[in-house]
Design a protein that fits this description.
Blueprint: H1 9-31, H2 36-39, E1 46-48, H3 56-63, H4 65-69, H5 77-88, H6 104-107, H7 116-136, H8 142-151, H9 154-161, H10 168-182, H11 192-197, E2 200-202, E3 222-225, E4 228-231, E5 238-241, E6 244-247, E7 253-255, E8 260-268, E9 271-278, E10 281-290, E11 298-299, E12 304-308, E13 318-325, E14 328-330, H12 339-342
Antiparallel strand pairs: 1-2, 3-6, 4-5, 6-13, 7-12, 8-9, 8-11, 9-10, 10-12, 10-13, 13-14
The protein binds zinc ion.
């Protein structure tokens, strides 16, 4: 929502009205169910690829997933985080605390918000509000909603009139319309969708060989120990390695490899460990340094499981990734798609 051109004063009145609408619809949204059209789309389409050291991870820890999930369907959480990354530019200080640049969605003015937490609350509520309007308009294309985070809710109706599907042409013509209407020099960011989606890897589940998503963000994964017999690095004895070990820096985000329910979060010999379950498939993520997940939560492929660490019996920062089917560990390597390595 940055770069609004300097507009006439009556525009502020429109925003005041919009803010009241946001408030009303947010309350309505919080007591209503997840929009039904969301459920009809394939799950886990968007994998988050934030730059290393992005403050978004810190915000997530501070604010908590629950707050976000009250307003935004789980499958769009990663899109929301990509918006957060885009809005903050990875630099919280530059935005004066308003990391989601959400101040204008309150009353059209800058400077309403000075803390990251306040900004996230307002930004998330606004995003939820846009999803709700999109649902009422029967707009299925998430890109239209993403662009409206920058352009304002008026873009949703405009896009609906023009077929309801995002295109650069529609984005540009809305911008032109607003510029002409208010005699502004510029309006919003016409490439906002591209700017947000550079932080997301959009993968179609259709025709994919891979059952499991790759759990860490890298184009060249470093597998330090494969599945099977090996000499244990700490104990020197021969043992059977029940999973795959991936090396990366401490703090590297770990993504859920498959949808499921968090069945176990515990901290013991394998360090901080999260286990998810989908029917008879259990997936283990071990040696984490941090996680926000709690037992019973649902995850999608691509949901952040936690951060890579060096906890428990571990010699260096790595992820131990283990898959069991009916309690028996399997070698998950063949179940990744080769595409996962090439992106
Ligand atoms: Zn291991």
């Amino acid at each position: 929502m940055k770069k609004w051109a300097i507009g006439a004063a009556f525009i502020s009145l429109i925003f005041v009205f919009l803010a009241l609408l946001v408030l009303f619809l947010s309350i309505h949204f919080l007591v209503s169910n997840e929009p039904s059209f969301m459920a009809t789309q394939a799950t886990g389409e968007y994998l988050l690829l934030l730059p290393e050291g992005s403050p978004v991870y810190l915000y997530m820890r501070a604010v908590g997933r629950e707050m976000l999930l009250q307003v935004v369907p789980a499958k769009y959480l990663n899109i929301l985080l990509a918006i957060m990354q885009q809005e903050s530019g990875g630099n919280a200080e530059a935005t004066g605390g308003d990391i989601m640049q959400a101040s204008e969605s309150i009353d059209g003015n800058l400077g309403n918000i000075t803390s990251a937490e306040e900004s996230i609350k307002q930004g998330v509520s606004y995003f939820g509000h846009l999803i709700e309007i999109a649902q009422e308009l029967n707009i299925q294309d998430i890109r239209v909603i993403v662009q409206s985070y920058n352009y304002g809710a008026g873009f949703l109706a405009f896009a609906k009139e023009h077929g309801g599907v995002y295109s650069e042409e529609i984005s540009n013509s809305f911008r032109q319309k607003m510029q002409d209407e208010y005699d502004w020099y510029g309006y919003g960011d016409p490439d906002y969708v591209a700017h947000v989606f550079r932080y997301l890897n959009v993968v179609s589940t259709e025709g994919r060989a891979g059952v499991f998503r790759f759990p860490i963000p890298t184009t060249r994964p470093y597998l330090s120990y494969g599945f099977g017999s090996r000499i244990h690095p700490l104990f020197g004895s021969e043992d059977f390695h029940k999973g795959l070990d991936f090396l990366a820096k401490e703090g590297t985000p770990i993504y859920s490899s498959i949808e499921g329910e968090v069945s176990v979060v515990r901290n013991e010999s394998m360090g901080l460990c999260v286990i998810t379950r989908l029917e008879n498939i259990s997936v283990y993520y071990m040696h984490l340094s941090a996680t926000n997940l709690e037992e019973g939560e649902l995850v999608q492929a691509g949901t952040i499981i936690g951060l890579m660490g060096n906890t428990g019996y571990s010699t260096e920062s790595h992820l131990h990734f283990q898959v069991e089917i009916d309690g028996t560990p399997i070698d998950p390597l063949p179940f990744f798609s080769l595409d996962d390595y090439d992106r």
